[in-house]
Amino acid sequence: MSLRVAGALLRAGALLLAAAVAVFAATAALPADAIAVRSGGRIEGEQLAALRAAAGLDRPVVVRFLDWLGGLLTGDPGASLVSGRPVAELVGQRALVSAVLVVGALVLAVPLAVALARSRGTAAGVLVVAAAALPPVVVGVGLAALLAGGWQLVPPVSLLPAGRPPWSRPALLVLPVLTLALPTAAYAAGQLRGTVADVIARPFVRDAELRGVPGPAVALRYVGPLVAAPALRVLAVSAGALVAGTTVVETLFGMSGLGELLVAAVRTRDVPVVQAVALLAAAVVVAGLLLADLAAAATSSGPARRGRRA
Amino acid sequence: MTGRTVLLGATTALLVIVLGGPALAGDTAVRTVAAPWAPPGSGLPLGADALGRDVLARVLAGGRDLALVAGGSALVATVLGAGAGLWTGWSNGSVARGLAAAADLLLAVPLLLLALVAAVALPGPAAVLVGTVLGGAPLTLRVVADVTQASRGAGYVRAALGRGEPAATVLLREVLPAHSALVAADLGMRAVLALQLAAALSVLGFGSAPPAPDWAGMLRDNLVGLPVNPAAVLAPAVALAVLAAALAACARTADGRVAR
Question: B97 vs A78, A113, B87, B88, CA distance in Å?
Answer without folding.
Answer: 38, 33, 11, 7
